[in-house]
Each structure stands twice: as C-alpha cells, then as structure tokens.
C-alpha cells in the first residue's frame, strides 16, 4: 500500500512498483526506523502536537512491531514501497488514527536521512571493534617476531634489513589511522536531520534538539535543505572504507607472495587455506586473494555514491535511494573481509629461518657497509661509490659482502679494515637502527606498547 493515495486514481503498475521499491535493501533499517519514530512521537506529544493517549498507542504498537519482526512473527511485506511505508502502514492497521498522526511534521525525506545515519553508526562501531581486534593480533605477532630479521624491499628488490615485527607494525599504524578516519566520519555524521521534514521544515512547534538528544546525536542539523539533501557521510565513510581496503589488499598481496615457494616466509594454518581440485600439492591463500579482489567492490561503491550525487539539485531526489545498497555493500564487504582476515593472521606462523636466509642474500647490508666507511671519515657519496664497486666485485666473483676477503675490500678502498665484517653483520645492522620508528627490536617493542595504548 502506498502512503500517497489521495491524488491518484489507480494502483501503481506492479513492475513499476518493483522498480521503485527499496524494501529489499532498506528493510534492514527497521529497528532504526522504529527508534526514530518513537523519538519523533515522543517529541510531538511533549510539544502538545499529539495527545499522550496517541503516544501510548504509537509506542506500544511500534515496540510490538519490532518484537514481532525480530521473532519472525511479522514478515516484512516485499511489495511495500520502503521500510518507512511498511512500518507506518502496519502501525496504522494496529492502532488506527494514532498511527495516522505519527507522520505529522515529518517526511520520508528526513526519516530516511535519519535512519541511514542511525544504522551506519552501528556499522562504524562494528568495523571499529574488528579493527581493534586486528591491531591487537598484529601487536601480539610483532612482539613475538620483534627480532626476526627479514629483508625490507623497495621495488620488490631486497633493500635493507628490517624485522618481521617491524613490518607488521607498519600495518598496525595504517589500521590505527583507519580507525581514526571512521570515528571522524562518524562524528561528522552524528547530527540529526529529523524535523527537516520534506525540505522546508514545518509550521508546527517542533523541538528538533529534543529528538536529536533522545537519539544520541551531537546536535540537530542546522539547515533543513541540507538535512535531507546530502549524503556526504555515505561518501566519507565509503572513502574511509576504501582506504582501509587498500591497506588490507596490500597486506593480502604480501601474504600471497610470502606464501609462495619463492618466498616461503610464512605458513598459513590449514583452516584458513584452500586446495586445488586437480593439483594435490597445492595450498592456496584464497582468503587473501579474495580480499584483494573484494577491495574493488568497495571502491566501486564509493564511485557509485560520488557519481550518483554529483549532479543532483537540492533537495531530495529519488536517485538518492541508490545510496543504501552502495554503502551497505561497502560495510558488509569490509566486515566479511575482516572476519576472515583476523583469525587467518592470528594463526599464521612466520618461517623466520627463511626470512633470515633471504636477508643474507641480495646485499641488503650494503648501506651499512657504506655507513661504516662514513664512520671512518669518508664523505657518504665516496663511501657509496666504493661500496657499489665492492658489490659489483662480489657479483663478478660469486661472493657476498660477508665472504669477500679483506684484501679485496682494501683493493677498492684503503679505508677498509677487519671491522667491516662486524659492521655488516645482519643482527647488528638491525639492532643499530634505533632511529625513531626504526626496526631495532627494542624500538619495535616500544612501537607495540604505544599502539596497544592507542588501540584501547
Ligand atoms: N525509499 C526512499 C529512499 O530510500 C525513501 C524516501 C522517499 N522519499 C520520497 N520523496 N520519495 O530514498
């Protein structure tokens, strides 16, 4: 049943109704719709706009509807135009005239703008909790692997020695910012549009501050056109989620690489890996590949929202009904990804011997060799050039910086002495990198402490 009967002489064409209806995707906001309606009715009563008898009937009716939807007694009509129509229609059937008074000084335009905000507040909290859990897992692993030397890469070429703990904490930092972005967006979203009505407020003596407060908002939105027109909060949240997915996707890509026989830096638990239907030897990191793939969905949701909004004149336009599928999909996807990713990471083991072996090749201590010459008084550029020549010599002779004899060092640069071997020792290279944010194990442990505190 439509709410907009009076002007029309025919029922809506059924296929058009299917096209027009949003019930398939907005029925998940039934709780928020009811919560908003109760706050609205309470305000109407306090302001003397409806009677307390009507309020009693409305509140009882709405609470019953909520309970019955929850316990499966009441099915949401798939042909209703939207969840707002369904709840109001159901209420009116139950309580008669009082139900018809609920929509005084309100429109579905401010109602939907309210419901999405209320719904997304919970979604933000869910993702926030999951991120907290993920960061905790990272801190735990980083503590465990604070001293596990591995190669750090640039251009996917071995670059300088770091530790696995240091590498993991880089992601913990990114995820902490993701949490902050979510909270920032949530706080900016947390202003109440209810009472903006269709677009131009109302002549009734409403109290918008009262509903804003009752619903836990920071305040009421200050312009009624803005209240019903913008979906910036959806775009902002989808941006924050997209950035989060970029982080998860990069991490996933690294895990895919680390699982390969070429790296073999980690082993995933069997419970979080998959096999092949034909190749018996295979153990595949499907979860991480799916996360890498699903990042595209979330970026798509953001693009949908931006594109949908960019040409709309104020105030409400039906195009905006498209906001919900996009932002709900973004949250659903992120939550699903995190649900799989967290235990997968928690049960993953690092193959620290392989990491160390990889760190021992590829001349990742060449910068330390140059720094050693600097310590002996050479300008860095000269030290850099001499070390470059040493590396070229090692490659030509099939040796490493550790195995190249001291005479050969001296042949290229007089300044070298036996001390070079200690200077290029991998553990020393890592242990000495004590600069703020660097990979020295005690630094990593203090990074972990800091992040744990911020993650509370
Ligand atoms: N189902 C609509 C939506 O999701 C609710 C608002 C309808 N308002 C209107 N004037 N048609 O956007």
How would you describe this protein?
There is one protein chain. The chain is elongated, with a radius of gyration of 30 Å. Helices cover 63% and strands 5% of the residues. α11 (232-259) packs antiparallel against α12 (286-309) and α11 runs parallel beside α13 (323-346). It is mainly alpha-helical and 456 residues long. The two termini are 49 Å apart. A two-stranded antiparallel ribbon has the order 1-2. Strands 3-4 form a two-stranded parallel sheet. The site of arginine has 10 residues, from α7.
What is the subunit arrangement here?
single chain
The percent of residues in helical segments reads: 55-70%
Bound heterogens, unique: arginine
Strand order of the largest sheet: 1-2
Q: Give the ordered list of helices and strands.
A: HHHHHHHEEHEHEHHEHHEHHHHHHH
Can you give the mean pLDDT? 96
Structural class: mainly alpha
Query: What's the Cα radius of gyration?
Result: 30 Å
Beta strands, count = 6
**Helix segment tally:** 20
For the sheet with most strands, the description reads: 2 strands, antiparallel
pLDDT < 50 runs, ≥5 residues:
none
In percent, how much strand structure appears in the residues? under 5%
Form type: elongated
Distance between the termini: 49 Å
Write out key terms for the chains shown.
single chain; two-stranded antiparallel ribbon; binds arginine; 456 residues; mainly alpha; 63% helix; two-stranded parallel ribbon
């Amino acid at each position: 049943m439509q709410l907009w009967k009076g002007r029309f002489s025919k029922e809506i064409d059924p296929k058009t109704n299917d096209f027009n209806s949003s019930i398939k995707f907005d029925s998940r906001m039934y709780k928020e719709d009811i919560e908003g309606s109760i706050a609205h009715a309470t305000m109407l009563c306090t302001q003397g706009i409806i009677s307390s008898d009507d309020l009693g009937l409305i509140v009882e009716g709405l609470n019953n509807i909520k309970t019955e939807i929850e316990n499966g007694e009441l099915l949401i009509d798939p042909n209703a135009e939207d969840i707002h129509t369904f709840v109001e229609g159901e209420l009116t059937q139950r309580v008669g005239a009082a139900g018809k008074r609920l929509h005084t000084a309100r429109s579905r335009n401010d109602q939907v703008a309210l419901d999405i905000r209320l719904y997304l507040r919970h979604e933000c909290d869910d993702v926030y909790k999951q991120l907290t859990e993920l960061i905790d897992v990272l801190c735990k692993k980083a503590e465990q692997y604070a001293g596990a030397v591995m190669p750090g890469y640039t251009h996917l070429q071995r670059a300088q020695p770091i530790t696995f703990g240091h590498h993991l904490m880089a992601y913990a930092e990114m995820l902490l910012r993701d949490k902050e972005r979510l909270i920032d967006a949530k706080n900016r979203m947390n202003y109440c549009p209810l009472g903006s009505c269709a677009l131009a407020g109302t002549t009734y003596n409403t109290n918008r501050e009262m509903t804003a407060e009752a619903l836990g908002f920071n305040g009421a939105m200050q312009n009624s056109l803005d209240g019903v027109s913008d979906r910036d909060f959806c775009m902002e949240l989808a941006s924050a989620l997209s950035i989060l997915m970029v982080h998860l996707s990069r991490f996933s890509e690294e895990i895919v690489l680390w699982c390969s026989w070429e790296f073999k830096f980690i082993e995933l638990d069997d419970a979080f890996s998959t096999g092949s239907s034909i190749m018996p030897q295979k153990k595949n990191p499907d979860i991480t590949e799916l996360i890498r793939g699903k990042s595209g969905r979330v970026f798509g949701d953001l693009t949908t929202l931006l594109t949908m909004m960019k040409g709309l004149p104020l105030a409400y336009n039906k195009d905006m009904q498209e906001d919900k599928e996009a932002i709900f999909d973004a949250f659903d996807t992120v939550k699903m990804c995190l649900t799989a990713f967290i235990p997968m990471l928690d049960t993953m083991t690092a193959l620290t011997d392989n990491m160390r072996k990889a760190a021992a090749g590829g001349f990742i201590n060449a910068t330390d060799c140059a720094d050693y010459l600097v310590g002996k008084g050479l300008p860095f550029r000269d030290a850099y050039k001499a070390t470059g020549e040493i590396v070229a010599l090692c490659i030509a002779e099939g040796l490493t910086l550790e195995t190249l004899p001291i005479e050969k060092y001296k042949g290229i640069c007089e300044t070298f002495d036996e001390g070079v071997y200690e200077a290029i020792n991998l553990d020393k290279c890592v242990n000495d990198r004590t600069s703020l944010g660097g990979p020295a194990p005690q630094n990593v442990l203090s990074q972990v402490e800091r992040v744990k505190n911020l993650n509370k």
